[in-house]
Amino acid sequence: MAANPIIIIGGGIVGLATAYKLSLRRRFGQITVLEKEPAVGSHQSGHNSGVLHAGLYYKPGSLKARLAVSGIREMVAFCRERGIPHEVCGKLVVAADQGELERLRNLHKRGIENGLEGLQLLDRDQMREIEPHVGGVAALRVPQEGIVDYPKVCEALRKEIEGNGGKVVLGAKVTGLELVEDEWRVATPVGEFKAGFVVNCAGLHCDRVSELAGEKREVRIVPFRGEYYKIRPERQHLVRNLIYPVPDPEFPFLGVHFTRLIHGGIEAGPNAVLAFAREGYRKADIRVPDLWDALTFGGLWRFLAKHRKMTWGELRRSFSKRLFCQSLQRLVPEIRPEDLAPGGAGVRAQAMSPEGSLVQDFCLLERPRALHVLNAPSPAATASLAIGKEIAERVRA
Q: Looking at the domain 6-46+151-219+360-394, which fold is it?
């Protein structure tokens, strides 16, 4: 008896990694990835800063912590074997003042609990040997972190899937999902597909795809745009590799930081502002159904009420290079507004609860003939191969 075919909805890095891991397991039938765009990795996978995250920040025992720690090792090995540009350059997490020292020490302990290797607490002189222009009073060195070309990872995964007999179908936006007896019928503009099992890796649209499959949208994707500046070439000597702040427990996002890019240049950012479209990479991008979906969700209003100061500060910083620069100066005091040139932007597919809390961990919703990835923001790109393995082990097709 032939094994049931499996459909993966979404050709971002998580969907591709899942299809790749499934394609290695010969007990499954035909593996097909359906991607609505004309290319794979078109959204979160291709609109991020290209950092390899080692699992420093995440709650010990969480899926994020476990899969980031194993995922970075697997991602580095995958890139090394296939000649994909990457570099394990390490990063500094900087305590800007004495008030952040205790949080820095706690972060060090959390990293050890999560299994990170080689962590070092550095005093001011030691950290300036690594980053001569860094400010602050102390830093945590994370040697395992690095940078990578994620779009090339996506292309390599596509080749692996097709080499293993799978298919990646582009321009195949899923418009309908119906379970008829034991078979899914998946409607797209390029035809109907059938499968015994569906994996929803639709990223920015994962909640809507789950609804098409008959699930109630208890959590909702709220898109937050992260905007970046680039450091002008003559000032790029101020940053050697990666410089991050100590996370603020009152701030639900990581905060602006400096990132060296794998193909050259230094990026500064991102902030976090509500996007008026799920694929809204510019301030002017507005899609009424997406905006209506966000504004009619009670969870968003509870979130905004809970984080009024942060929300207002992020909005002001979005329109003020001077304020953006002030945040960066906590890490590199010599940076000036005139050093910043317009950069790119990404949109974070962040799941939010009806109570207005951000879903912190990866969220995998399992059903007898489906699995929905309902929250996979950063560090999902780094952890994608580990996430794909985790999903493959849960598929019962």
A: FAD/NAD(P)-binding domain (3.50.50)
